[in-house]
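Course assignment 3, question 2. Fill in each field.
Student: A.L.
Task: Predict the tertiary structure for the chain below.
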Amino acid sequence: MKKKRVLKIIGRYYERLNKKSRQMPPAYDPEVIHKFRTNYKRLKAFLHMIQLPGIPGKLKDFYHQLGTLRDLQLQEQSTRRDARHLPTYRKIIHKQAEQSKLQLHQSLSKKPVTKASRKTLTKVKTGFSRKTYQQYLENKTAAIQQMLQPASFSDNDLHAIRKTFKELLHNDQLHDSKLQDKLGDYQDKRNALRLLRKYRPARLGKKEALYLRHKEEALIKEKKKMKAWLVRELKTIS
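Answer field:
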């Protein structure tokens, strides 16, 4: 792949990121955030494949801020049916989401996508050879084989496997699968449990406290069941 083609592909990714970043404020719609984050991951995967430095820091920070808001939005959505049982908790989650939007608006005003685009494009010195591509595939294959070795998989192991599978998917080296979807669902379940604990109010009415505890117990049970399925599936391909 010639240098001109590499520059065109990277430029196209940044154009998509710019477009989605302009669509975000003030609502920060979850679907727009999802599309931005997906394009970011595709760009990151491509840069890894052609062995260029990763995405510049300010845009990386913005991406992580979006991830924080996404998790809060998912938590609001997943507890919507519990609204009458968790009024205090849901108010806290909503407030955190609104604060996150303000932070994102401040970050967007500094034009992180435009600045990152300039920095990345100046790093492109040559094209992308077949040898570099083969080396990338060999490294990723070795990494996956290593990841699939543990007798028992930690949550961090499963997250690392998911990220590697996603990178290969974005570089057209894997097809989407039920396993990848379930790895994503498991990460969402982890985040839901983390946020349930993180924003549990110190002072809470007896009924809401009891409901929140039952909610946590149910999430733990669901997470355990999902993990058992994932471990079984991963051991069949190790």
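Instructor remarks: The chain has a mean pLDDT of 92. The radius of gyration is 20 Å.
Grade: pending
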